[in-house]
Amino acid sequence: MTDDINRCRFIDVRQASALYRLLGDETRLRLLRVLSAGRLNVTELTGVLGLAQSGVSRHLGLLKDAGLVIEERDGGFSYYKLSQAVAGDGEGPLAAMLRAQFDASSDEPSVRADQARLQEVLRLRKENFDAHAGPDTRDRRQLVPGRSWAAWSRALGFLLSPLKVADLGCGEGYLTIETARWASRVIAVDRSEVVLKRARGLARRRRVSNIIWKQGELEKLPIADASVDVALLSQALHHSRDPVRAVAEASRVTRPGGRVLVLDLREHQEEWVRGKLGDRRLGISDEELRTMLTRAGLADVKVGVGARKAGDPFTVLIATGHKSP
User: Fold this and answer.
1) What are phi and psi of 63, to 5 degrees?
2) pTM for the complete prediction?
């Protein structure tokens, strides 16, 4: 009897030791923290954590073998979620320990960064598959393919007359290429030649040819005066060395009767974006953005909320003004 008791004690200690070693890895704790928000697939987890898919899959496999994560198949995808042993409503000591750890680290910059990326992943999922309740759907939720905001924006583009557009601070060109679907010509400007090279490659793969790529600064655009119908600054001002000058330059290159359109973050307190994303400013206030456009000589200036979600620290502002004839 004594031998049996000692053997059971040894097994218990060995299992506990293996579990604590498993949870001693920061990446696996990040995975569990993110999955506490709901089930996600490997591609979504890769986007949130910024890790290679092979690494995410390996860590998921270890967590699954330990009984901490459950895999579910749905619509050709594998989704992962927390097991009852560690889920938020779990009553066991492990669930309580993880809840305490997650609560204690909630204000850490890396955690806030993961949460912000998670919100973006969930936003993209909702835009591409809108959820509708109905009496004949599984657990009253039905994923309806095709309910995409990207598709709506492209459809609205067909209603516009061909315009010449400047995409200022174009980055890797995703919005540039969407704009090129309805614009007669797009002039895309970015300060980084490396980024522009990737953007050109993307345009070639998408077979888009009505884009002129230029390297230059927002504060000194390589574009002639009054040469475009629309000057677009999307998520560019909070990276600018001088946002006021950047808006003035956007106004300069816009023809009389044309418009300057700005999408940017409302002021926030997420300091981690400076180191992680290279942001120079923590967003812009509504009134400051309005003042920038007005001082740039634009009329009929409007500033409003473009996107906002409960729990997300970032709100997108949309501002526009037209160049007086």
Assistant:
1) -65, -35
2) 0.65
